[in-house]
Amino acid sequence: MTDDRGTLAALVARYAAAQTLQQLAACARDYEAAGAPHLPSWPKLRLALTGNYSTQFLARGFRLALAARHLAAEIYESPYNQWRAELLEPGSALHAFAPTHVCLALTSIELAYGSLRTPEAVVASVAAAVQTALKAGDAHYLVTLPEPLADELDDNSAAYAWRQAVCDGLRAALALPRVTLIDTAPLMRQAGAAAWFDDRFYDTAKLPFHPDRTPAMLGLLADALTGVIAPRCKLVVVDLDDTLWGGRVGDDGYDGIDLDPAGNGRHFLRLQAFLQGLRGNGIVLAIASKNDPAAVQEVFAKRPEMILRADDFAAVEIHWEPKSSSLARILDRLKLSTAGVIFLDDNPVERAEVRQRFPDIAAPELPDDPAQRVAMLLGTGLFDHRIATGESRQRNRMYAENDVRDAAQRDAGNYQEFLRGLKMTMHEAPVDVARERVSELIQKTNQFNLTTRRYNWSELAAATRAGFGRCYRLTDRFGDNGIISVVAVARESDGDARIDLWLMSCRVFGRKVEDAILTDVIARARALGARRLIGEYIPTAKNALVRELYPRLGFKEIDRSGANVRYALPLDDARAPAAADFIAFADPAASAASG
Amino acid sequence: MSSREAVLRKLEPIFRGVIDPDLVLSEELDASQVPLWDSLNHIILVVEIEMKLGIALTTDELAGLRNMSELVTLLQEKGVQA
Questions:
Q1: ipTM of the complex
Q2: Among A96, A131, A177, A277, which residue's beta carbon has the most beta carbons within 10 A?
């Protein structure tokens, strides 16, 4: 078995690298000569291959192509251009083979110039054959849609009109359970017409493409088959800020996020269009965002540029809990396993957190540059070329209807472990070291902002004259998050120290960073000789996130005027909340803080 | 070594890669003597010859080539040198 595995791995590697028919044929021959090794755990199929062109090359390589996708198969290949008789006759050799899957590979060349010719006749013939064959057994049918002909000069050509009519007719007639239509046009677009077509091989061997395109065609068919057996993509869970749009809606407001079709926003809109296309193919969409639900609602309601609408999503998790908890809730609600789930998030820390809890979930490394994202996703092979039938198009709606909120609390046990693994280090410094960034945070931060005082530099200096103004930079194993928090503390005449300003980037919220910052603030307030640390919460439309921050950190309410609340934390007997031990301070001040 | 012989030696690794690693090419060889020189492998041979020798064959040429002697003559006409 070990030898088998080694042989198998080497053959699969050769198959994956095969660019020419010679390379494909050579490794397929060696695979068959080795006894078509496969693992006992792989699903076993019986694949019948039939069509209207020479499918022998595809048939020769199919078992290895499937082995590369962890499937074991017996293959039956129909004689040349016998697809109609094979499908229509209940007693045909194809049906006698008792296939689990049937691949019907059709070329436009024979359809358009053969006996059928008119789009109506082609559609009627193919649809009747497949519909009849469906009754002969329980096989799943994969049918290639006619490819663009070399004569298809442009969208006004007769050849284009012919193909569109055939494709539309087949899509309508074959929107059935157990039928998958495969669009081959993307393959041809990638290869280019000059590399795809070579009439010499159709004339001499009835091969409708250049022989060296065989590996690509085989890959497409094998991908489609794999997609039927174990969909590689059935659910896509997306982040919102800096993923579906540019910027953070909580800070920038619904009207401040970037969805500009003429600017950088175009790339976010492209991703939305890509996701909308997936949804049209029966793939379910869901949202997992650390955000303010009301702000997100505003985006859907008030930004007409949005391509995706709120009801495109079958499940929505918008809050500040870990994304892995959101994923767990979404899966539970939609009654899905982790197979075929893809998580899209611009933040590498969120991707790592989800991967740690759900190793099976694909969390592709989205490029930082939004312009590169759709191309990157297409290149992952996570999204197969399957065209959905009526059944899977219904899936989104079924999920949307079943969307009953499950309030069960999730086990977040792994989350602490994840935070520990982040190896976070805090670098603390006076605000003067980074005036520009500190000013920007003061002007722009809306969500984690206790008082929302938009100080200019001299106002900040005045507020902290007898106190201190500090900024905090956070690094972790994914890199430098930059300055993520600013604190300004004023020394009051009555001996209290008052947190006049405290704001933090919500990108690092949920990592106990604020607890660590507070230990530093407490140490500094003590050093000033203060007896109490005062905290204020001034509510705004956007800072509900921190309404309960001070009580959670051990402060007690002391007074209230209108909606504004003041809290105090005594420093003399001070039992500062235990800072998370997984955030280290790079500065010697840390030892003072914990002492 | 004649120039025909030299063309034959250029073809040998191509045939070996497609048909049989131990195959020795000679002018007398034709497809009927080589069981694996079937219509499918013939297509692979044609594609490999075009790519590796940098020539283009017409439909008639690629359909007709079933013996080494004709193949060598044709390749010489197309300028394949020793």
A1: 0.90
A2: A131
